[in-house]
Amino acid sequence: MARWMRSPSERNPSGACPRFPGARMLDGHFHAAGTAVAVPKGHTEALEVFSGMIEDLKGDGTVRKVFDAHGMETATVAPAGSRS
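RESULT FIELD:
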């Protein structure tokens, strides 16, 4: 753990805010991380399989659990069917 972190929750900047009176997190974001799966053009079956897999992982909470396990509690999981 980095020396400036007192606990794993401080991997997320909002977790460190209580240590600094007056510090706050602003609404919105300055960085959005995206993940994509690319399949060769015309491989419709592969596209359907991977798209379905991603939707299932979002729908059953797996993506949320992974985010939380890595200190990304404030990250938003894309809505079902999102393509952007």
